[in-house]
Amino acid sequence: MSTKVVVITGGGGVGKTTLSAALAVGAARRNLQTCVVTVDPAKRLADALGVETLGNHPTAVANQPGLWAAMLDVSASWEAMVHRHAAPEVAERLLADPFFRTLADRFPAAQSYAAGEQMAEHIESRRWDLLVVDTPPAGGGIDFYAAPGRMREFIGGRLLRWLTGASIPGRRAIYKVTARPALKLADTVLGGPLLEEVADFLMDLRSLHDGISHRAAAIELHLRRATPIVVTTAYPTPMREARRFFEDLPEKAGKSDTVVFNKQLPATWTDSAALRGAEIEAPIRTALRDNLTRWAAEVRRQHDIKQQFAARHELHMIEVPWAESAPTSVDALAGLLASAPELEEHLPA
After folding, report:
1. Angle 140-48-22 from CA coordinates, rounded to 5°
2. What's the pLDDT score for residue 231?
3. How many domains is the chain partitioned into structurally?
4. Are 318 and 258 a contacting pair, CB within 8 Å?
5. What is the CB neighbour count within 10 angstroms for residue 1?
6. What is the per-residue pLDDT across 129-179, written as a single tens digit (0 to 9) for each?
7. Exposed, middle or buried, 4 (CB in 10 Å: 0-12/13-18/19+)?
8. Which residues have CB under 8 Å from 223's CB, separation 6+?
9. Which of 23, 104, 118, 248 has its CA 20 to 30 A from that of 93?
10. pLDDT, tens digit (0-9, with 9 covering 90-100), for 166-213
């Protein structure tokens, strides 16, 4: 059994996690074994599914048969990667190294790469019919696609090679005899062990190159085979992120032909007929009419922006209506999906 993958991308605050959960619920209700994975630490996926907590390993959603969910734990994922790609003694040093902890926990590219590794593991387990990936908001989704190449370039790139020397047998032994004493002397002058610790860290980090390089290539292959769905709203910042995805996406990534405009205002807001004949005091009627006029202008503005964006990039446009409150149960998520049935076309048959 091969696992189909849907990657949900877009800027922050556009509703990616909620739509990811809705697609996953829809797939599970089609009797597809489905897993939805999020990188958002804000518990939005757990809230949307109506569950208490989610962890790094997929957990069955009790109130929806056939559905599992997970929330990426970046630290735990990097620990697993280090143990996978490094010799045991090197892995222990790296995991105890504060420089490595800073790299793994605080840099968006490291978070995105960890998410890609987790995605690859779930795909290769062949446990599910469908995997829905809610990507990190950094770069509107581009960082998630670019992370494997960036991490491979960082670990094996020119700068790190220049700092650590050529990858030859016995390099660490040579380093201990030549460079390390000089660094120790320099640290004595500076009054602390900083330079020596940095050099030790870089030497250990370089040892991950072969494993990460091989894994990054596998992640890029999975991404080319996945179905990306770009989510945005009609407001300027999310639109810029969506535009970047279609214009700057690396060639090795899968191409998307669909854009989802979420939280769309009702077209009926352009009609003020509801005020006609209503028994409302004149000052209130005037205020309501002015307010409806402003909302009507916003609805028309959003409509024009959406049409221009879809035409410019030759995209299929799907609209998801605005809702008064975010869904907090699988039934509410199924209702959200029903409000935009074209989304279900992206689910496996």
Report:
1. 70
2. 94
3. 1
4. yes
5. 7
6. 999 999 877 666 788 888 888 887 776 655 455 444 545 444 444 345 444
7. buried
8. 7, 116, 145, 148, 252, 253, 254
9. 118
10. 454 444 443 454 444 544 544 454 444 444 456 666 667 777 777 888
The CATH number linked to 227 is 3.40.50.300
pTM: 0.82
Residue range 230-247, pLDDT digits in tens: 999 999 989 988 888 888
Q: What is the largest CA-CA distance in the chain?
A: 92
Please, are residues 139 and 230 in contact by the beta-carbon 8 Å criterion?
A: no
Cβ atoms 344, 227 nearer than 8 A = no
The C-alpha atoms of residue 345 and residue 178 are separated, in whole angstroms, by 62
Report the distance separating Cα 299 and Cα 122, nearest Å.
41
Burial class (CB in 10 A: 0-12, 13-18, 19+), 16: buried
Hey, what are 142's tokens? Answer: 């581009």
Domain that holds residue 315: 4-346
Residue 285 above 80 pLDDT? Answer: no
Q: Buried (b) or exposed (e) across 277-310, using 16+ Cβ within 10 A?
A: eeeeeeeeeeeeeeebeeebeebeebbebbeebb
